[in-house]
Amino acid sequence: MMTLSAMYRYPLKSCRAQPLTTSLLSERGLQFDREWMVATAEGKYITGRTEPRLLLISAEPTSDGLWLKAPNCVDLFVPLGNFTESHIADVWENEFLARRGALAADAWLSAYLEQQVHLMWTGPESHRRVKHHPEIPVGFADTYPLLLIGEGSLRELNHRVGREMSMLHFRPNLVIANSEPFAEDTWQRIRIGDVEFQLGKPCERCIMTTLDPDTAAKSPDSEPLRSLAKFRKTAGAVVFGQNILALGSGELRRGMSVEVLSYV
């Protein structure tokens, strides 16, 4: 029987993964997932692709704000009330309205990254929508609210790489146990607990997968991207994992059963 073996959220885009045993879920994704991001003065997103040190930040959300923690930095609490300024945010040239104005957080992040940056918050409701699904809200995630990967797929990849790569190299939200390698590529609709999900499209992978999730160091041999490119390249893109949509809301718990309702 397939089960939900792990859940992760990333409250700040490109920050450390936060493992979860339970989580509220909506069409927007896991609660607090990628509600904040680091941006330029113009509102353009900054990620670990260009600033690997972001991977070392722990972002811990509360009901009224966000704790920021990083190596050699004093912990900082950022109240939601500090985000007083409406400003355009830009994620992959998709522009939408978000919030900033948390000056202490701007200074903290600017000192840590050694460049002038701003902390942005989606606000209580995101003004951004999933491309081709205008009814589905999404925060600062690259494309879809959720990313799913099967353990079987990672096992096959590790065999080809020749060493163990952590699932966190791929920054999933939902991890499925007892699945065959790349079985998720064949699913169209699934159910976890009481919530149904629609598979969207394969996730295109980038240099982020070559960064160690614990140290932010780049892999000297460009793995696992190098091995993926040999057998998971389609239409010029290297893919691993599936972007998915939640078709309702509810609560997810680690260990829940996973049922395939239909196949592509």
From TrEMBL:
Alphabetized PANTHER family for the sequence:
MITOCHONDRIAL AMIDOXIME REDUCING COMPONENT 1, MOLYBDOPTERIN COFACTOR SULFURASE MOSC
Residues spanning the signal sequence: none
Q: Which domain of life is it from?
A: Bacteria
The taxonomic lineage of its organism, from the top, reads: Bacteria, Pseudomonadati, Pseudomonadota, Betaproteobacteria, Neisseriales
Any Pfam family hit: MOSC
Instruction: List the InterPro entries hit by this protein, alphabetically.
Output: MoCF_Sase_C, MOCOS_middle, Pyrv_Knase-like_insert_dom_sf
Q: Which residues are in the MOSC domain? A: 114-261
Q: What is this protein called?
A: MOSC domain-containing protein
